[in-house]
Design a protein that fits this description.
Two copies of one chain form a homodimer. Chain A is 68% helix and 8% strand. Chain A is mainly α. The longest helix of chain A is centred in the first third of the chain and has 27 residues. Chain A binds a DNA duplex through helix 4 and helix 5.
Chain lengths: 167, 167
DNA sequence: GGAGGATCGTTGCGCTTGCAACAACTTCTC
DNA sequence: GAGAAGTTGTTGCAAGCGCAACGATCCTCC
């Protein structure tokens, strides 16, 4: 391959040409799907239960955990957010009575976020609407197999980003 | 299928059981990948060019557009963010000299965000690092075909969410 | 051609988040 | 055991975003 006619502008053109790169498109698509899907589910959740999606995220993770409780740090990791962000988030949810902080028996520094009865009740009433919304958005777009495939592909990306970014 | 033994708690258990639903897992995975990938690329971009990812998003979209310019509203749609958010974002980028606002000839309400020479220069110097980071994160996780497949699946989700949520 | 409605971009305001610093506690090391 | 080093959760602070309201401009329909 011969050298390009105009060296310095050519590197610029080269860089511009690479803007259509597959990986950049992938990043953009992840961002767009995230925003669209989050906005859509948020609207649906506001209409049906007047609940922020993040609250539901916390409630779901607690409900799935043994004893309906989770350490603050672990919850923050699960939610992929900072511990300070999670502190305020749990503050709000606790003020609404859906969660409660409990001291941790085997580590006196730690706190456990515990799902209250009211939190569990709110979750069981909001979950069906949330799921119906999600089905409405996803099922016509992707078959069950495609959804599973998408999950697997995304999980592989997540795992590798985590592994190569955390150190 | 016989009725469950304890009716009212059973609906609760039922709702809790559905928390493992494929669609909820998919939503969670999209959120996680978004956060991880955004944080990772952000760190890389800070280290190499000290540039927020959103700035690069604007720069890339402008560079790809004919005349390196885009209407504010269209840019907001492309970035999947509100017009007010974009106003402040462009404010910052313009203050840094990478973009410039120009009046729109055929619509005196409108403004065009135009890439400046400096913006183009910053983009061409930052893009290679950004792409290298992205390759480092994505290529070991997914083959070229899988990446393309992932893009296609995500695009179908995006399109359907947009179509069924906007009205 | 002019009035009503829609669209474009900006601003005030409040909310949520992350970073850095901190105190309380645990764990490692000698 | 005592001190150093790390971890856990909270707080002050500032940055960024979306919503609602606003003026300016365009478009439609009589």
């Amino acid at each position: 391959m011969p050298a390009p006619p105009t060296p310095d502008p050519a590197t610029g053109e080269d860089a511009i040409a690479r803007l259509d790169d597959r990986r950049i498109e992938l990043l953009g698509m992840v961002l767009e799907v995230h925003n669209e899907l989050l906005n859509a589910t948020q609207r649906g959740l506001e209409a049906s239960a007047d609940l922020p999606v993040q609250w539901l995220g916390v409630l779901i993770r607690l409900a799935r955990s043994p004893g309906q409780r989770l350490r603050m740090t672990e919850l923050a990791r699960d939610m992929t957010m900072s511990t300070s962000g999670l502190t305020r988030l749990v503050d709000r949810i606790e003020a609404a009575g859906l969660v409660q902080r409990q001291p941790c028996a085997e580590d006196r520094r730690g706190l456990l976020a515990v799902l209250t009865d009211e939190g569990r009740s709110v979750l069981t009433s909001a979950a069906p609407c949330h799921l119906a919304d999600l089905e409405r958005y996803l099922d016509p777009a992707l078959s069950a197999e495609e959804q599973q495939l998408l999950i697997d592909l995304l999980r592989r990306v997540r795992d590798h980003v985590r592994a190569s970014a955390t150190p």
